[in-house]
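Dissemination and training. As part of the outreach component of the grant, students in the summer workshop were shown how a complex can be specified as a set of sequence lines and then modelled as a single object. The example used during the hands-on session is reproduced here so that future cohorts can follow it. Participants entered these lines:
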Amino acid sequence: MSQAVSPLAPKRYPRMPDVEGVRIATAEAGIKYRGRRDLMVMVFDEGTEVSGVFTRSRCPSAPVEFCRANLPGGRARILVVNSGNANAFTGRKGREATAMTAAAAARAAGASESTVFLASTGVIGEPLEAGKFAHLLDGMVARAMPHGWEEAARAIMTTDTYPKYLTATARLGEAEVVINGIAKGAGMIAPDMATMLSFVATDAPIAAPVLQALLSRGTQPSFNAITVDSDTSTSDTLMLFATGKAAQRGAPRITDVRDPRLVPFRRALNRLLKQLALQVVRDGEGARKQVEVTVTGAKSSRSAKRIALAIANSPLVKTAIAGEDANWGRVVMAVGKAGEPAERDRLAIWFGDIRVAHEGERDPDYSEEQASAYMRREEIAIRVDLGLGRGRATVWTCDLTKEYVAINGDYRS
Amino acid sequence: MSQAVSPLAPKRYPRMPDVEGVRIATAEAGIKYRGRRDLMVMVFDEGTEVSGVFTRSRCPSAPVEFCRANLPGGRARILVVNSGNANAFTGRKGREATAMTAAAAARAAGASESTVFLASTGVIGEPLEAGKFAHLLDGMVARAMPHGWEEAARAIMTTDTYPKYLTATARLGEAEVVINGIAKGAGMIAPDMATMLSFVATDAPIAAPVLQALLSRGTQPSFNAITVDSDTSTSDTLMLFATGKAAQRGAPRITDVRDPRLVPFRRALNRLLKQLALQVVRDGEGARKQVEVTVTGAKSSRSAKRIALAIANSPLVKTAIAGEDANWGRVVMAVGKAGEPAERDRLAIWFGDIRVAHEGERDPDYSEEQASAYMRREEIAIRVDLGLGRGRATVWTCDLTKEYVAINGDYRS
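and obtained this result:
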């Protein structure tokens, strides 16, 4: 499972500030991996509000069901995340494991079980032995510290080749608030949500229903617009925690999503979510190129997104990109198979700024050398204009390489 | 592009009998390939009736549009197929090429242009120069012979590693009738229809509307139940020709699809279509294993088919099979992402006869060694029971190997 770090890994990482009201600890629980931390705890001060979005899989993991049940309460005191085992498709044993972990976490944090949140990522179908790590939670909560975001990002990795974390600031009223986020995910990444865990925390005083509205909206052009392999995980989890500590520095409490003071925060949050989502795509299993697919001129934005995803998920488009070939014929094929309104003789296709097809034919002026040179880049942009309406959408994916097959097929050999 | 022959190629081929009323010729037109035949003509005696089903792509090729326009006439005198160029996304030039080919073919066969049918397979977006081969048609019609089905199957190949042809017989009234079929296709294979061409001819006297009903029904559990890579071609064409010559041997003319005398013919046709479709899957690009996915206990057959396709198209399921790993967790994932009714705690999954999961958990009695031994076979059967209803469906696919990526990504290097 040891892969070289993705060539698309960030060249530099931000220094992560503290988020007042959040403390972090990690540990080596030996759940599956040896010699690395695989357990992470985030402890939140009293008053922390929470929102979340989860996988749409019909076969969700036990922790996803556990979180869904606690979410309506809107309060969080502790988050426990393990890597190495997804606690998915584990039946009664899975529910016993979440119950045992939640009880130990609540005891450790001195809080109600209704304020505990859990996430697990790793192998599906293997019972998670919570007994192996539940006894560690007491000590972890006791030694949890405000720093440690980088370690937290590392502890939740599975096939990721690099840790994913980002920070942002925004004005809220007269105060400056912090937003920190971590994410993991590399394969089984598809809308909606993918084998993706992401946890974002802020010190802004924002009420849970507002957080939920921000998050549900914000995932559409970020985590719901990325795909690595069209495979959706049983465990996808994105949560947003707000400790409210910035109120002490004069930040106003926001209880209405239409509050104009929320605008800069929303913008900063959306940018952070998009950047975290792109970090996941750029660590797509075997990825060597980031691919942005934009569809314009569709009948509707929904239609544009479906066509964009048909292109982004096409194995033939993705292998052509891996082969650095501007094979726009395969883009035509993918548009045609999407089942959405499209008229062949109105199609135009660009690779970067190079228009390769126009009005249903190869662009007579297009230079294959120029296109080939473009395809050697690390970031490829494909645009398709349908010429039918005003719908548009952008999604992101990566190329499909032999390494993807090796990572997902050779792991037993 | 030279690949070794698929390990799943047929061990032996049938000797193809003649179909009375059908004559065949092939030629080297040099459309793209050198040193091989790339043009095929089938000439039909007067009175031949025809039916067809075509790609559902919104960007169909020029020959598909041409055939669709002629099909309501129900009569066929000549079929012209070229490989090396799909004449797809070629705009006005594409329509000029079909018009020129059709005119030359009609002249050569001494028939109306409304009885000409065309198919092209190969590169998309490259103008097809019909002038390169239209002049050959006269000579080909003149020398066309009743035998030559094997050569015909070879002339229409693109990335196929072996020719695909089959024959069957059936009783029709007191007479025995022949059904011969050829097919091509290896990649861009997905429901519905895929980069797949298939031409089936019989001497049975069956009216065009009955042929159409038989074909539309017969493709559902055959060509519409296979997928190599979920990518649907712009050019998929399946046609069924009936010369009616068996009437001279006493076969009754069939004008009603409910005619009980049609039953053995329908059965033989359906078996032939299914076997041809499986030959396409077994030549899937890079394939080393044939995979049958059966879903039972679904709310409806439609729902069962969608779930079966979600499993068969999942890159993670397909790479696990390539890696000979009974990774049923990925099957659970694929069931979950299909968006169809499913209850995690009722799921059961088998690899062959080995039940690996039961009531939402790993089957406690399942032996990993036994499952691993099973996965080393050449033909893998996966069954999922949803425990919800009586809907069932079976689809076929192949594994996803590094060779698939090499074939589709390395072709320029």
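Chain A is about 30% helix and 25% strand. Students were then asked to discuss how this feature might be tested experimentally.
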